[in-house]
TrEMBL record:
Keywords: Signal. The lineage of its organism: Eukaryota, Fungi, Dikarya, Ascomycota, Pezizomycotina. This is FAD/NAD(P)-binding domain-containing protein. It comes from Parathielavia appendiculata. InterPro entries: FAD/NAD-bd_sf (IPR036188). It comes from the Eukaryota.
């Protein structure tokens, strides 16, 4: 598609800016090397890396804080801190290096075994896994590692799929588990990747992506947490570091990508600003809804329209007399004992006696806070009737903090994976002066997003800008580099 003339587009923008009620139009034009849309996990990490490489960056974030899904609730009376979004990280050099770069301490934690188990829909108590079940899980983890990760462990680096795509990657993860004898691992995969989706249907590609070699090692060993107990410490430090290179509460009005760079029109606090950048890095979910102010090409639109996503509602609630209980939800009669969805993952003690954390999964992102709260109330009522929690908890519950994380788990179906969707998606990298990062490109796991940034996106942007770059050792030394990875890294445009 031919790019519209910049002058014409700007004239239109100026007209639209003047018509925004109460807005001022700032004549000042901000010139940067890289404009980054989205100040979440992927956007902020790449901003720090690019700044360190000498690039002038500007992060444009729609909310009044950076950090994306990293949200925290602090009880005003007890001061207890609860991460109601991102809380743990894989134990990898990429993660440790990033925390160290921002001067935020880390500590290690072991994944604790689930507390008291109940089927939250049926109110049935479930016995904890006995010695035999635990041995079965360990045997399944070994089978998974030997038969699956040995073949597909490189997926940790990104969706660099071979052509043709192996059938094993688009069959349901439940079927792959049956083929390679790791069915006993599926409940663990679902527990640590809440909210994962239905394991009888979700393509194995996503199961492996969400449970790669580093994640497997970390869940059976040590995970990393912020040493302050608050994941947001990372983003407080990043904001300090980036200073005026972050524009909060900013709305993207229009994006024009042209032959010499990218021009953006944005509004912040009623002021309209023009940003000119050599390169654009998009670090928001690539759905048509999120990208509605973009000048999408036909192929971008066609690809992004294939995505669908899930909803994930989290927060902290209060029930008088809760008394620091922790309950985890297990499906008594469901495949792989996955909790029924819509449904909760767990009601977990927070450290404040009457408060508990909740996380509710939905099969769609077309839901609202009230839908999430209704599920919590319904399951509390069931558990109260079963005598697991205070009577009338379903009526007595109040919500101290809540957040709907949508779109979550942005994915495509098996047929698209088979047809080579990810090869086409990756071919967008670098074209029209635009790069893309975030969970849809790297997996819903901060460590994977940062790995993708370090291994692929940041080196490619540096190369494109003429900034010196060296591939990180961890990337080059032990990995199987597919043609897609090599072309992306070497900055070859498609
Ligand atoms: C509840 C929950 C818990 C999780 N827990 C963990 C965990 O413990 N460990 C882990 O590694 N991963 C966890 N994840 C996965 C986590 O989502 C990813 O690691 C990471 O947040 C994905 O990064 P991202 O940059 O793609 O998205 P985000 O971090 O969500 O960042 C996207 C950013 O873009 C902004 N934005 C969106 N649209 C626009 C727009 N139009 N203009 C400007 N800005 C915009 C958003 O406000 C947001 O700040 C969790 C996810 C959820 C939902």
């Amino acid at each position: 598609m031919k790019s519209p003339q910049l002058g014409f587009v700007l004239a239109l923008w100026l007209k639209s800016a003047a018509s925004i009620e109460g807005s001022g139009y700032s004549n000042a034009t901000i010139d940067v090397d890289v404009a980054i849309i989205g100040g979440g996990s992927g956007g902020i990490h790449s901003a720090i890396q690019l700044k360190d490489a000498g690039a002038r960056v500007l992060v444009l974030e729609k909310k009044d804080q950076i950090g994306g899904h990293a949200e925290t609730y602090i009880n005003k009376e007890t001061g207890v801190v609860n991460n109601i979004g991102v809380s743990v990280f894989e134990d990898t050099d990429v993660v440790k290096r990033y925390f160290a770069r921002l001067g935020v301490p880390t500590s290690s934690v072991s994944a604790s075994p689930p507390s008291t188990l109940y089927d939250f829909e049926l109110g049935i108590p479930i016995p904890p896994p006995d010695e035999g079940a635990q041995q079965a899980i360990l045997a399944a983890a070994k089978a998974y590692s030997q038969n699956v990760l040995s073949k597909y462990g490189w997926l940790d680096q990104g969706y660099f799929l071979p052509d043709p795509v192996p059938e094993e990657l688009y069959m349901p993860i439940g079927d792959l588990a049956a083929k390679y004898n790791f069915t006993a691992l599926l409940p663990i995969m679902a527990r640590f990747n809440w909210h994962f989706g239905n394991q009888t249907k979700v393509p194995a590609l996503y199961g492996i992506k969400d449970f790669g070699p580093d994640f497997l090692r970390s869940t059976f060993g040590q995970l990393i947490v912020s040493g302050t107990g608050n994941t947001r410490s990372l983003y407080d430090a990043a904001l300090k570091e980036l200073g005026s290179s972050v524009l909060l509460s900013t709305t993207i009005l229009a994006v024009n990508r042209h032959s010499t760079g990218v021009t953006l029109l944005v509004s912040q606090n009623g002021m309209v600003k023009t940003i000119r950048a050599k390169k654009l890095l998009v670090a928001i979910p690539p759905t048509l809804q999120s990208l509605k102010s973009f000048d999408l090409s036909r192929s971008e639109r066609a690809l992004f329209s294939r995505f669908s996503s899930l909803g994930y509602f989290t927060g902290v609630a209060r029930v008088p007399g809760w008394n620091s209980r922790s309950l985890a939800n297990v499906g008594a009669f469901t495949p792989f004992h996955q909790p029924l969805i819509p449904g909760s993952r767990a009601f977990r003690a927070t450290g404040t006696p009457d408060e508990f954390y909740f996380g509710v999964g939905f099969p769609t992102d077309q839901v609202a806070d009230e839908d999430g709260k209704a599920v919590v109330r319904r399951q509390l009522a069931t558990l109260a009737e079963a005598g697991a929690i205070p009577a009338a908890a379903g009526d007595a519950v109040t919500f101290s903090a809540s957040s709907f994380h949508m779109p979550f788990n942005v994915r495509v179906g098996a047929a698209d994976i088979k047809k080579g969707f990810y090869a086409e998606l990756l071919a967008l990298q670098g074209s029209r002066n635009t790069y893309w990062t975030g969970a849809a490109w790297a997996g819903h796991n901060s460590a994977l997003v940062w790995k993708f940034n370090e291994g692929t996106i940041v080196p490619a942007i540096k190369e494109d800008l003429g900034l010196e770059h060296q591939l990180p050792l961890s990337w080059n030394s032990h990995l199987h580099l597919t043609p897609w990875m090599l072309t992306t890294i070497s900055g070859v445009k498609h």
